[in-house]
Amino acid sequence: MVTGLEPSATSKIKSGNPSRRFVEPRAEFGVFGGSGFYSFFEKGVSRTLRTPFGAPSSKLTISDLGGKGVAFLPRHGPHHEFPPHQVPYRANLHAFKQLGVTRVLAPTAVGSLKAELKPGDLVICDQFVNFTSGRKDTFYDGPDTTHVSTAEPYCPQLRAIAESAAKDMGLRFHRRGTVAVIQGPRFSTKAESRFFSAQGWDVVNMTQYPEAVLARELEMCYLNVSLVTDYDAGLEGDPDVKPVSHEEVIRVFNENMGGLRRLIAEVVKQTPKKRTCACGSALLHARMSA
Predict the structure, then answer these.
(1) Which residue segment(s) compose the domain that 192 sits in?
(2) What pLDDT digit, counting tens, does each position of 200-240 carry?
(3) How confident is the model at residue 35 (pLDDT cuts 50, 70, 90)?
(4) Fewer CB in a 10 Å sphere around the end CB: N or C, the chain?
(5) Looking at 121, 232, 238, 240, which residue is catalytic?
(6) Number of domains in the chain
(7) pLDDT-derived band at 243, boundaries 50, 70, 90
(8) Which CATH number is 66's domain given?
(9) Helix intervals (H) in 47-116
């Protein structure tokens, strides 16, 4: 078992600097599994980690992919026991950090807010709008006041690689999109869905916040590839639009799982070691000084 941090290192984290330490690197990439995506490797080494922020959703499975170490973690747990508002987001991201992860790939299931974004489509999101509440959404509760920029919350280098790979693979995808993140676990009302659509936003999801922000606070690159599983409740007048259900979400996700898994694998293989983005220096000008 990997025990993670020594007591002295744990105290440093609690005092407000989670990027100051991590154990010997074991993985370069971290992959989150979402609804319907509970495993990634046929073989791998399991690790149970502890973090200053509690236990992550599950054991992590670490394996080699194209000569690169990859850690996989189902964000909802292996049996989907964590609803979106109860996912231990801080522990999950911190567990990746302890393994040396610098790039996080985070596929998710989403509902479409536009008729042209059809079930089975992939959306490489570039923005989010947060409608959640009460979630533990920062590693920095003091005394080091830290304001991390999230103007561009998704890594531009990883987004470009994902776009190129999806194009080469012949997948049906959209190169950008804004995701409205709702609290869950309930789905949107029609009125809420119409409001999101009227703002010009593209998809709706329950887990992108605070996951993307926490990755930025740990100076990790973060990529979201959203798989459209349904039309959200406010899209009316189309005979193909049915009220969303969890069963339908999982059915469509499973039908398109193969392409999504291959895309994630291709992103890992095609990503160079050198980071050309600014994700790795997110804390450089983020701290308030007395």
Answers:
(1) 7-281
(2) 999 999 999 999 999 999 999 999 999 998 888 766 555 55
(3) low
(4) C
(5) 232
(6) 1
(7) low
(8) 3.40.50.1580
(9) 89-98
